[in-house]
Design brief:
The complex is a heterodimer of chains A (180) and B (163). Chain A contains seven helices and two strands. With 180 residues, chain A is mostly helical. Chain A has a domain of 72 residues. Chain B is of the alpha+beta class and 163 residues long. Chain B has two domains: 30 residues; 130 residues, Beta Barrel (Porin), CATH 2.40.160. Helix content of chain B is 24%, strand content 50%. In chain B, the strands form two sheets. Chain B has a four-stranded antiparallel beta sheet. The chains are: A mainly alpha (180), B alpha+beta (163). Chains A and B meet through helix 5, helix 6, strand 1, strand 2 and helix 7 of A and helix 1, strand 1, strand 2, strand 3 and strand 4 of B.
């Protein structure tokens, strides 16, 4: 059974007991994998010693490496890259839901636009009003042509003898009763 | 494909929220409905009511209720606009247009127009005289008057339910 990497590293740093050191040394000589691991540690150690890298830089390098590794892991687990397996029924119900929401929006939107357009409609004001009214029939025809729709239409009985008596007035009923 | 799915889902959610906002606008108008009750009367020289007609309509603050009174020789067009203040008081604006046949033989037409405003309270009655008022009871002239009462439409509905 091969010792783990940490134990090999400890062996390299001469931190293991003499009894263990002998056994590990024998194993490394006989096992190609562990031998390779030991060589890697050895090469790294040589590189670090030869490159004259300060302790601070080593720590920085380790931290950057750790960050890079995390970034790679997070990219691999990105939302858009993640594979989601959905059954046909789930996809179909999602599609129905989207279509239903679109219909709700379109009906609501068209209603809103109708209101907005009707509220924003500014009646065209004619620049030159040149209407020669001669007879009541013609006046009625003119009014009807300009008719934009009346909320209340009241027909006054004929022969009521109504005439203009003065300036039109708008008063409170209480004031009117007091005058009488 | 997945991207498209999620974008569609987000758009649908957005559309749904928009339609909900529109509903809120409708609800706002719903709470501001005003009911205009009109009683149109023709009064005789003794101030006795010869003819009258009741009518009502629903509007909102700032939107006129258009009334047209029509007879053989007379057309009156009245635009009654209530403006509701935050303290629930009203400014009532009445615009009157009168087309009057002057003489039965020539059928010439006279045209009068007027714009009147009056501050009132909700429920308080006002009277509009589109043809003016005849104070002299012996003048043998008929008066036409429009009694206007503006109420909160919802209060009126509740009152009608209670009755």
């Amino acid at each position: 059974m091969c010792p783990d990497k940490e134990l090999i590293s400890a062996f390299f740093d001469e931190e293991t007991d003499a009894q263990w050191s002998n056994k590990i040394s024998e194993h490394i000589d006989s096992c190609s994998d562990c031998n390779e691991q030991y060589r890697k540690i050895e090469r790294l150690n040589k590189y670090l010693l030869s490159a004259d890298i300060s302790e601070e830089q080593i720590i920085k390098t380790r931290v950057y490496d750790a960050i890079k590794r995390k970034q790679i892991v997070s990219q691999e687990n990105a939302f858009w890259r993640r594979h989601i397996e959905l059954s046909f029924s789930v996809l179909a119900s999602a599609a129905v839901l989207i279509i239903a929401l679109c219909i709700v929006f379109i009906t609501g939107y068209s209603k809103a636009m109708e209101i907005v357009s009707s509220e924003n409609t500014i009646e065209e004001i004619p620049q030159d009003i040149n209407v020669q009214i001669i007879k009541l029939d013609e006046a009625a025809a003119y009014i009807l042509s300009e008719d934009t729709g009346y909320d209340i239409l009241i027909t006054i009985p004929s022969g009521s003898g109504l005439n203009v008596k003065g300036r039109p007035e708008l008063i409170r009923e209480a004031d009117y009763n007091r005058r009488q | 494909m997945k991207r498209l799915f999620f974008i569609s889902l987000l758009l649908s959610l957005n559309f749904y929220i928009y339609s909900q906002t529109t509903d809120l606008d409708f609800k706002y108008i719903e709470g501001k409905k005003l009911s205009i009750n009109l009683t149109t009367r023709i009064l005789g020289s003794e101030n006795d009511t010869i003819w009258h007609m009741d009518s009502s309509d629903v509007t909102i603050s700032g939107k006129a209720v258009k009334v047209k009174l029509k007879s053989e020789d007379l057309v009156i067009i009245a635009d009654i606009t209530p403006y509701l203040n935050p303290d629930n008081s009203l400014v009532l604006v009445a615009k009157g247009e009168v087309f009057l046949s002057d003489n039965t033989d020539s059928k010439d037409v006279k045209y009068y127009t007027t714009l009147k405003s009056l501050p009132v309270n909700l429920g308080e009655k006002a009277v509009f005289f589109p043809l003016g008022m005849a104070y002299d009871s012996n003048s043998n002239l008929y008066n036409i008057e429009m009694e206007i009462q503006v109420l909160n439409a919802e209060d009126e509905e509740e009152q009608a339910k209670d009755e």
